[in-house]
Amino acid sequence: MTHGLPAIVARNPGNAEWVSDGTTGYLVDGANEADWADRLISLTDDPSTASRLGEGARSVACHGADWSRNAALLVDLYRRTAAQRPADQQAR
User: Fold this and answer.
1) pLDDT of amino acid 72
2) Which residue of 6, 14, 67, 83 could cross-link 25, Cys pair, CB 3.0 to 4.6 Å?
3) Domain ranges across the chain
4) 59 vs 2, 23, 28, 89, CA distance in Å?
5) Sign of torsion, CA 37 43 49 54?
6) How far apart are CA 19 and CA 49, in angstroms?
7) Residue 23 buriedness (CB in 10 A; 0-12 / 13-18 / 19+)
């Protein structure tokens, strides 16, 4: 995204924080190979859309990132994941 390229990513909460479908790239069903291919082909067939999405992606990556907030979210995710592990599998 920092290189001004649109992103095509699997639809999940983490990716949706960075990629706005149709604005900075595309969110797709991670298991749907045809969806991935369709989006990639649409960008190669329409350079003006690819350029517009790429500009949006670069703007978000360079100016819209709150790195402290993202780091805090990541730490929280790790803590919640670790808390869900069975007690006999947790690190000591």
Assistant:
1) 87
2) 6
3) 7-89
4) 8, 11, 21, 42
5) positive
6) 15
7) middle
Token digits of residue 6: 């649109």
How far is the C-alpha of 56 from the C-alpha of 75, rounded, in Å? 27
**And the tokens for 83?**
């808390």
Share the mean pLDDT of the chain: 89
Does the pLDDT of residue 92 top 60, yes or no? no
Q: Give the residue-averaged pLDDT of 49-68.
A: 89
Contacts of 61 by beta carbon, 8 Å cutoff, 6+ apart: 1, 2, 18
- In the block, tokens 């709150």 appear at 66
pTM (two decimals): 0.69
Per-residue pLDDT tens digits for 25-43: 999 998 999 999 999 999 9
CA 78/CA 50 separation, integer angstroms? 34
